[in-house]
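Study the following:
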Amino acid sequence: MAVICMTASSPSTTCSAISTRWSIFHLPGNYLRTGIIRILAARLKDLIEKMGYRSPSEETLVKMISEARNKQPRELEKPWCIGACSYYNIPHDMIPLLIKIQKLKAEYGDNENVSTVLTVREAQWIARLYHVAEPLVRELPDTSESALLWLDFIASSYVQRERVSEQMNEQYPDTTDLDRLYFHSEDFLNDDVLIS
């Protein structure tokens, strides 16, 4: 990692026509990485406090950010395949649906903030939520393709909540607000539901 510093040229410099020169000092990568993590921790601390919550200390946040950054992807973050269904307790009757979603993600991924790969964790949440979410998304005025994308969107909300919960070492993800948002109303896209 290199840091570029601008220094004024001295008159004795052979390149007197150039008013400035760039000097490159090499610093260990860990030095800069640690500085960036500290800046991120300070910003996160401020943000948490602005939201009205009591923030962990900056040192604790630095430790949490470093641990999260250094964690290797878990098994659940690997791409889903049919063979994973038995091992991860994904019902086999979900396979046709998961294949359709897998194809849609490959087709629309990165175009509409959709990842290109269906992960094992996403497949688990789709299987868990399908029977309660399917009647909601079926009522949407678009095609069955968009209903599947909405199902994937709802499941991805739960996936993100579970990831955060794991980072915070919680026993299970508290999805009360997501449950209320998606399933306590007949029309989860209604402005009144989204605002409350």
User: Anything to note?
Assistant: Residues 2-10+18-70 form one domain. Strands lie at 2-8, 20-26. DSSP finds eight helices and two strands in the chain. The chain has a mean pLDDT of 76.
